[in-house]
Automatic annotation (TrEMBL):
Enzyme class name: transferase
Xref: InterPro entries: Asp/Orn_carbamoyltranf_P-bd, Asp/Orn_carbamoylTrfase, Asp/Orn_carbamoylTrfase_sf, Asp_carbamoyltransf_Asp/Orn-bd, Orn/put_carbamltrans, OTCase_ArgI
MF terms (GO), sorted A to Z: ornithine carbamoyltransferase activity
Location in or out of the cell: Cytoplasm
Annotated metabolic or biological route of this protein: Amino-acid biosynthesis; L-arginine biosynthesis; L-arginine from L-ornithine and carbamoyl phosphate: step 1/3
Residues reported in the UniProt entry to bind L-ornithine: N192, D251, S255, M256
Keyword Cytoplasm: yes
Gene: argF
Keywords, in A-Z order: Cytoplasm, Transferase
Reactions that this protein is recorded to catalyse: carbamoyl phosphate + L-ornithine = L-citrulline + phosphate + H(+)
Species whose genome carries this gene: Deinococcus sonorensis
Protein name per UniProt: Ornithine carbamoyltransferase
NCBIfam families assigned to the protein according to its UniProt record, in alphabetical order: orni_carb_tr, PRK00779.1
Region span, Disordered: 1-28
Residues annotated as domain Aspartate/ornithine carbamoyltransferase carbamoyl-P binding: 36-174
Length: 338
């Protein structure tokens, strides 16, 4: 005689959580930047950026565990500047997607000194499937891209830091929701982070405010281009702009290579330090972000990065997910050469 399930067993089965969605090789989204360079956030359209951020969120949920879309592909990591987050996340990201990363320091390559940048590009394109550069000059990345047939990714330059902004906006969406119309207030030096925030304002419709002392403004051409494109961007030195912000963001006052100008910069930025008291001025559900490393005692203090409104370490984690998503959308249609 067949016995029917008891009410208890039916109830228990009904209470089981749904199984998470897992991608298969046949269910992956189409790469939206196949084979293209990513030197600036503006190298994507709003729709392409949306696809990258959606993929990053999917990867963070663990939905890509069963697939290795970059199997057999290699990425060269070129470093003129020291790195913790960029190096680790690109290396681990390639591994998790089935590929391989090789790290090359400036001591080994000597971009523009030991070898011409164009020659480095022409060599690497014969061996690897992509190049990531963390360099001093934006021009170096453009020279690499001009002479390499494989895609080039900007891991940081003097002008822009676009991969960081992918992780930043993933973090913003996770915590404060859709970014269109949200007030993103950047306080501090008008450096590569400030320029890239302006670019993201163009792409997302966020209301971006740059708060910086007179003489330390972001790049004028970046700002004017954003205004021409209809972005909501405000430039001010008034700290009152912090009040009610949905996102408060800061970065170091003294970037690598600016150490000789440190004393002047510290004087100019007095009062622009993000403290717990300043975080009480942002929106009740607002968050604090910092791309790290932090120079505690200058642009912020440990009590701010450990504050309940801080999402600094979630932001650092998202470097991995966002860059994996970017790597997939740039390299996901490539086939191994061997």
């Amino acid at each position: 005689m067949t016995r029917s399930a008891s009410p208890k067993s039916k109830s228990k089965k009904a209470q089981q959580p749904p199984q998470p969605f897992l991608h298969t090789p046949d269910s992956l989204p189409a790469p939206v930047m196949a084979g293209r360079d990513f030197l600036s956030n503006l190298d994507t359209s709003p729709e392409e950026l949306r696809a990258i951020l959606d993929t990053a969120a999917s990867m963070k949920r663990g939905e890509w565990r069963n697939v290795k879309p970059l199997q057999g592909l290699s990425l060269a990591l070129l470093f003129e500047k020291a790195s913790l987050r960029t190096r680790t996340t690109f290396d681990v990201g390639m591994y998790q997607l089935g590929g391989h990363a090789i790290t090359l320091s400036n001591q080994e390559i000597g971009l523009g000194t030991r070898e011409r940048v164009s020659d480095v590009a022409r060599n690497l394109e014969r061996w690897v499937d992509g190049i990531m550069g963390r360099v001093y000059l934006q021009h170096t990345l453009h020279e690499l891209a001009d002479h390499a047939e494989v895609p080039v990714i900007n891991g940081l330059s003097d002008m822009l830091h676009p991969v960081q902004l992918l992780a930043d906006y993933q973090t913003i969406e996770e915590t404060v929701g859709p970014v269109q119309g949200k007030r993103v207030v950047y306080i501090g030096d008008g450096n590569n982070l400030a320029n890239s925030h302006i670019h993201m304002g163009v792409l997302t419709g966020a209301d971006v405010t740059i708060v910086t002392p007179v003489g330390f403004e972001p790049n004028g051409a970046v700002l004017m281009d954003a205004v021409r494109r209809g972005a909501s961007v405000t430039l001010t030195s008034d700290l009152a702009a912090v009040d009610g912000a949905d996102v408060l963001y800061t970065d170091v006052w003294i970037s690598m290579g600016q150490e000789e100008d440190g004393a002047r910069r510290r004087r100019a930025f007095q009062g622009y330090q993000v403290t717990p008291q300043m975080l009480e001025r942002i929106a009740p559900q607002g968050i604090f972000l910092h791309c790290l490393p932090a120079h505690y005692g200058e642009e912020t203090v440990p009590e701010a990065t450990e504050h309940p409104k801080s999402r600094v370490f979630d932001q650092a984690e998202n470097r991995l997910h966002a860059q994996k998503a970017l790597l997939y959308h740039v390299m996901g249609q490539m086939k191994p050469r061997w």
